Amino acid sequence: MNIHEYQGKDILKRYGVRVQEGIVADTAEEAVEAAKKLTEQTGTSWYVIKAQIHAGGRGKGGGVKLAKNLEQVQEIAGNIIGMQLVTKQTGAEGRKVHKVLVAQDVYYPGESETKEFYMSVLLDRATGKNVIIYTTEGGMDIEEVAEAHPEKIHKEYIDPRVGLQGFQARKIAFNLGVEGEAFKEMVKFVAALYKAYDDTDSAMFEINPVLKTSDNKILAVDAKVTLDENALYRHKDFAALRDTNEEDPLEVEASASNLNYVKLDGNVGCMVNGAGLAMATMDIIKLSGGEPANFLDVGGGANAQTVEAGFRIILKDPNVKAILINIFGGIVRCDRVANGVVEAYKNIGDIHVPIIVRLQGTNAEEGARIIDESGLKVYSAVLLKDAAQKVKEVLAEQNIA
Question: Where are the transmembrane segments (predicted)?
């Protein structure tokens, strides 16, 4: 589950990570009040206005601006809030900005120069260890740095059984080239960042940039945090951080029905029980000349309610020209699934796309008989190749394949 920058910074602060202070605002007027409060708290007189969306590259898209007075705060915040912000990570359609973070200016003058670094913490599945990835080339797209200067990307692997060791934090600070007070601050920063990542069961913490200020403080100017949804039961308060405005409406609706749904760009909707079977089904659709319109796993206990919910979600995608239901009857009997399909079809009514139902497992033949005798525009199949052939035929009838 992705969260906003301001939410990620709040988590970091709980663990003693120094961050660029800021206050979130929903309107231009609130942004001005936030700026005033920020001046009282930090003494800053310039403000950074940051669009809060779940995507990187906001600055290049015009979603991060510097305001030098309160009038500019109101003007800039008013322009950003409500805009459709387009970045490399949003796609051409962009994301609508609903709120901004009014942050303090941390690039103030001093005796030494400021320096930007990149740092992230995530799991390396190949080694089974957590890894801290870092580089002196902060403030840039890490992909570009990795491609142009791979030698500048450092990795420090942490055995989860013993956690981050002191010498590892010092090694990171040394490789980043910081000295004196900044070295001590960086060691503290690395240790606190890793603890925040580990304690919250997160999938990723990415800080870009990590800033060494002109007075040798080390702080997180940005925070991109991905929480592990599978661990939310251990962090009940994190569920409130979810912003459904940042998610596809169909995916939000699916999660409310406990369905695992991901929208794709194809023309054949698919409904399957089991992630592995879903991947195979998507391959079959491709081999049949179609393109999968979604990933939809209804789980092992598929019934009339879940099938109907899946139907309604798939049918809301105007690109869907056919639906393939592929169910393996292990936990659930195929005849019950077939009855669920027929019941859901009748409840929804007025379905204009052909539906192919492939049932395999317990009572598969009985399930196929129920489908065939329903009188509805539903085609049964027992073998996967038969389902694939039927998909090919219905697409050909519509001059799609």
Answer: none
